């Protein structure tokens, strides 16, 4: 066989040796990234007492993390498009893990905010690299499934954080939920080091950073649309997740253990939703699958926000997160298929994180709406508005399901 023929075969069938290592490192890194993000929401009261500030000030640090994420997506995404996926991914995992491990030892609230901002840079850099590595490396017929598995890693990180609270905190102290994450970074780095670079990256590698900028400019229309889509998804997702443990404790007076157990349950629903809807999108299409998942979430709203018993709230939260992460399960494949080939780390990563940036105030806004609508009413109003915006955006948007990722546009 000629060298050209071999390259063509690899581009069409990404099952090159050790492609599983690439997929595994991308997925596991996103689980760890999400774990470091979500442990904060279970420690709002603890961190407020530790730094002598209000709980609202700790909630604000979530927004600070979201605000700094686009910087990481821009810098590390450009490096991954120019020099390969693996090296920047390894640097990113080590960076956000070490910064997170330092968080409990911040001398004051200002230092705590700086560390969470730096963590946001690492978190923002990771998604674009990890998603491109997973989607480019996985077989085309399984693209929707691996898209769902990757995004389920976000819920798996939430689940891991929820499980760590009752297991780690009583025995070792809350600081160890931050420090323990370092143990997970080592196998991720090893898997990435052993993984091959995707052939789709090799065949579309930009000649320089100028080519990266031109690719962004040439596709500015779809870029703006996808930023709007990710902004609405950010509001939809974080509006359903970030304050829900506090809602359960403040309104229903659930104990920390009961809240953690319920969080574990609804994150199982989230994982199942990402897997099911992501895989479904390979047959149904990306946009129709998102709309289907939105319908599931809408049906769950009454029980999720106004349930009068633990069983009803648990069922509503389970179905809600099935729908929420069902939407997200489609996103890695959808964004990578719509991205210009030369910037498949930077483009989806910046789109994703700019959506997070613009939607960053959503948690604070939702928290403030309690004064007008009550806690349950605020959650409901915010989620219904987000669902309505997503229905319109999905109905009007483009799709390129099953696109050959190794081919230049």
Short description:
By secondary structure, the chain is mainly alpha-helical. It has helices at 3-12, 19-38, 44-51, 55-83, 86-102, 109-137, 143-172, 175-179, 182-194, 199-204, 209-218, 220-241, 244-252, 256-284, 286-306, 310-338, 346-358, 362-368, 370-396.
List descriptors.
19 helices; disordered N terminus; globular; mainly alpha; Growth Hormone, Chain: A; 409 residues
Strand tally:
0
What percentage of amino acids are in beta strands? Answer: under 5%
Sheet having the most strands: none
Shape descriptor reads globular
Task: State the separation between the terminal residues, measured CA to CA.
Answer: 27 Å
Textual characterization of the structure:
By secondary structure, the chain is an all-alpha fold. It has one domain (17-192, 212-396): MFS general substrate transporter like domains (Growth Hormone, Chain: A), CATH 1.20.1250. The chain has helices at 3-12, 19-38, 44-51, 55-83, 86-102, 109-137, 143-172, 175-179, 182-194, 199-204, 209-218, 220-241, 244-252, 256-284, 286-306, 310-338, 346-358, 362-368, 370-396. α3 packs across α4 (55-83) and α5 runs antiparallel to α6 (109-137). It is globular and about 55 Å long.
